Amino acid sequence: GASDPLVAWCSDTTTLLSGTFSTAIGTGAQNTVLMDTGCTSGAGQEAADYAAGVYSDWFLPSVDELNAMYGYQSSIVDTATYGFASVDYWSSSQYFPSTSWFQSFDSVNQSVKAKSTLLSVRPVRAF
Asked: Residue 116 contacts by C-beta under 8 Å, 6 or more apart in sequence?
């Protein structure tokens, strides 16, 4: 929502970031570790540095994890706290040296955008 930061995917918008191509559910946390190591700023750092409550294991979801959240968003009752805005959210899934996957939350659309594009970031954690 309104508190989700708008950032580029990575400080390096033209280089392949090794290992961050996984799109499957369960791969976002590892993608984020690699982004946190390979970038000096961006979506991966926003998620890795996020801290809420006693938890410090937040990560940027993979594109398949985001798609699953899109599918369940209508069942989230407290939209002011947990709901996604109708905007595009970065995933931790890289596509090409200059592009990465995003998930639109105003439609089911998944596609790629330039890593320099400012998109929303929503840190998540497994539980």
From this structure: 8, 9, 13, 98
Region at 91 (left for phi over 0; alpha for psi -120 to 50; beta for the rest): beta
Global pTM reads 0.89
At residue 77, what is the residue type?
V
Alpha helices in the chain, H assignment, sequence order: 28-38, 43-49, 63-72, 79-82
CA dist 9 and 83 (Å) reads 22
One-letter amino acid of 101: W
- Indicate the burial class of 88 (C-beta count within 10 angstroms; 0-12, 13-18, 19 or more): buried
Sequence length of the chain is 127
Cα separation, 50 vs 29, whole angstroms: 13
The pLDDT tens digits of the residues spanning 35-90 come to 999 999 999 999 999 987 788 899 999 999 999 888 877 565 555 445 688 899 99
Q: Which two tokens stand for residue 77?
A: 């009752």
| Rounded Cα–Cα distance for residues 77 and 119 (Å) | 24
